[in-house]
Design brief:
This protein has helices spanning 2-23, 26-40, 57-72, 85-102, 119-142, 146-173, 177-182, 207-226, 234-250, 254-267, 272-294, 300-306, 313-333, 357-365, 367-378, 388-406, 417-437, and strands at 108-109, 113-114, 193-194, 197-198. By secondary structure, it is mainly α. It has three domains: 1-77, no CATH class; 89-124 and 269-438, no CATH class; 143-267, no CATH class. The protein has a two-stranded antiparallel sheet. The longest helix has 28 residues, at 146-173. The chain crosses the membrane at residues 51-72, 84-103, 123-143, 155-173, 200-224, 236-269, 281-307, 328-352, 358-380.
């Protein structure tokens, strides 16, 4: 019975989204539909129709948003974003599934024999890839000005403050809300135990995702403060920044805390040229990292031997294990480095579990697919502005998505549609600035 209720909730969410669009402006309604669905709906519940990708809480949110934008608000919707580079990158990303299929029709042995890909899998994979890009495309369509992007950042802060009691409950009593409300736990319980306490999962599927969305809230507040956009007063902003940083500590994610500190360095770099260099360096690093691992440039054994006196051995063992696994996985990929092995379990080597988004996507669709996604996600970082204010504004807005891009090396937080919504908004804002320039 509980399963049917969960499926019914996913099915009803697009209808609820329509109500949001009747009550609120386009941007607010879209935010509630996408981020509300991410924060509240059950993880892993899918409506599985034949021949098309399953509809989960994310896809249901995108469907509801597009229906609201097109049919209720009567806005024009550009299905491939905007004209120019962005449109062609999206077309290329969606088309890679067919190239992937052409080179993967033969069976593959990865511990067990896996069948070759079929045209049906190529079509389904292409649709799934496009659906994953929809938050970015929606962001391009709904963000028309700097004020719109500021509003998205403010809405996230408010949403996460309302969410905080659930997070604190799970930190204190263990991650159990998903099981209490939806009847099952979507995660492995022992993974959420840290330092004699618990990571909060709530309805996000993993404690690391909870930490990452609060990292986004932390960066949103710093962005708003740097842009002189305050909740009542400047002091309130600083108090909220403190609350969110304490939340990150309580969520027990060392990676999120380190990324928060790295973000602070980028935010408070006094020179615009240095900040711009750092943001672009992150993009370049993310693009070439798979190549670095594939060519075995990193001397893992030497690093492990020489860092034992600097870092705790448990942490060092964990990092070494992860890097060694990544090298084994790319060695397994071999000559298919550029195009990947495709889905249907072909991209997973038996006994090894990939962690970072980069390795999952490279194994499945290849290095080219990974680079195209990074470029699409961060194309605005390379846009020029005609004034010091616009240049600084774009840099400040870009810090959060660029730091989250860094997180795709060790973790997989690109599953959060919010960050793609922001990136789409930044693509639109950079276009708006360029139009104002001309």
């Amino acid at each position: 019975m509980q399963d049917y209720l969960n499926i019914g909730l996913i099915a009803l969410w697009p209808l609820l989204c329509c109500i949001f669009f009747l009550k609120f402006d386009t941007l607010t309604a879209t935010f509630i539909a996408i981020v509300g669905g991410m924060l509240l709906l059950p993880v892993g519940v899918e409506i599985d129709f034949p021949l098309i990708p399953a509809i989960d809480k994310y896809v249901a949110s995108y469907i509801g948003s597009i229906v609201g934008i097109v049919l209720i608000k009567k806005n024009t919707f550009y299905w491939l974003g905007q004209k120019g580079t962005v449109r062609w990158i999206i077309v290329a990303i969606v088309s890679i599934s067919f190239i992937n299929f052409i080179f993967n029709t033969n069976p593959l042995y990865n511990g067990v024999w896996k069948a070759g890909l079929t045209i049906h899998e190529a079509i389904s994979s292409s649709i799934a890839t496009y659906l994953a890009l929809l938050p970015l495309i929606i962001g391009i369509n709904i963000v028309k000005s700097e004020a719109d992007l500021i509003k998205i950042y403010k809405l996230l802060v408010v949403a996460l403050l309302l969410y905080l009691p659930f997070v604190l409950f799970e930190i204190r009593f263990s991650p159990q809300l998903h099981k209490l409300i939806y009847g099952f736990s979507p995660h492995e319980f022992k993974q959420q135990i840290r330092d004699d306490g618990f990571r909060a999962v709530v309805f996000l599927g993993h404690g690391l995702l909870t930490a990452n969305i609060y990292l986004c809230g932390f960066f949103s507040l710093i962005t708003l403060t740097k842009m002189k956009q305050y909740f009542i007063s400047k002091i309130i902003n600083y108090q909220l920044i403190f609350v969110f940083f304490v939340s990150l500590i309580l969520l027990k994610s060392a990676t999120a805390i380190v990324l928060a500190l790295v973000g602070l360095v980028v935010f408070y770099t006094n020179f615009s040229t240095v900040r711009n260099f750092l943001l672009r360096a992150i993009v370049v690093f993310a693009c070439i990292y798979p190549l670095v691992v594939y060519t075995s440039i990193l001397p893992l054994d030497w690093l492990y031997a020489n860092l034992q006196g600097i870092f705790a051995i448990e942490r060092l063992d964990s990092l070494y294990f992860r890097f060694y696994n990544e090298s084994l996985l790319l060695e397994y990929l071999g000559d298919y480095f550029l195009i990947g092995y495709g889905g249907s379990g072909r991209a997973i080597l038996a006994g090894l579990i990939p962690d970072g988004t980069w390795v999952v996507w490279t194994l499945r669709y290849g290095f080219i697919f990974w680079v195209l996604n990074v470029v699409l996600y961060s194309v605005y970082v390379f846009q020029k502005a005609d004034s010091c204010y616009k240049r600084n504004a774009m840099q400040i807005f870009s810090v959060m998505p660029m730091i989250i891009l860094l997180d795709q090396i060790p973790n997989s937080s690109w599953s959060m549609p919010f960050i793609w919504l922001v990136s789409g908004g930044l693509i639109s804002l950079s276009t708006y600035y360029n139009k104002a320039q001309t």
